[in-house]
Write a structure and sequence with these properties.
Elements (H helix, E strand, L loop, with lengths): L1 H15 L2 H4 L3 E2 L5 H7 L5 H14 L5 H4 L7 H7 L3 E2 L14 H18 L8 H5 L6
Parallel strand pairs: 1-2
């Protein structure tokens, strides 16, 4: 009986202690909070939302060192999920423009362009004739 229970215990431990049993691989740079919470060990909705918010504010995670900067995500938690996390898709952060700033730059560039197009080109005299010595009789 003991060998049978031991075999069952080993089987149960191998299933539940295997990190791949917890979930599928997650691209931390494109996954939503629900996907992160569902597939990573020790990360619930609150930590998953913190990951998504940090990514939105700071841009894509490059590696685990970036990820552990998120409040509540430490090195141990990252190590527990290392095999489940990928850093595939790099998402850039787009910062909102200040109102009127883009319009002012557009006005300046268009006025420069129009000034260039209406200004006649200045023709300089040829320096070749001026630099040659003149012969006198």
């Amino acid at each position: 009986m003991f060998p049978k229970m031991f075999a069952v215990a080993i089987l149960v431990m191998s299933v539940f202690c295997n990190p791949s049993y917890a979930g599928q691989s997650v691209d931390i740079n494109s996954a939503d909070a629900a996907t992160i919470a569902e597939n990573l060990n020790g990360i619930g909705e609150a930590k998953a939302r913190a990951i998504v918010a940090y990514r939105a504010e700071h841009g894509a995670f490059v590696d685990g060192q970036d990820l552990i900067k998120v409040k509540g995500i430490g090195a141990k938690l990252f190590d527990r999920n290392r095999s489940l996390i990928s850093f595939g898709k790099k998402v850039s952060v787009s910062k909102p423009a200040v109102a009127g700033e883009g319009e002012a730059k557009a006005d300046q560039s268009s006025s420069k362009a129009s000034a260039k197009s209406t200004t006649p080109a200045t023709v300089l005299p040829s320096t070749k004739a001026a630099s040659q010595p003149q012969l006198s009789n």
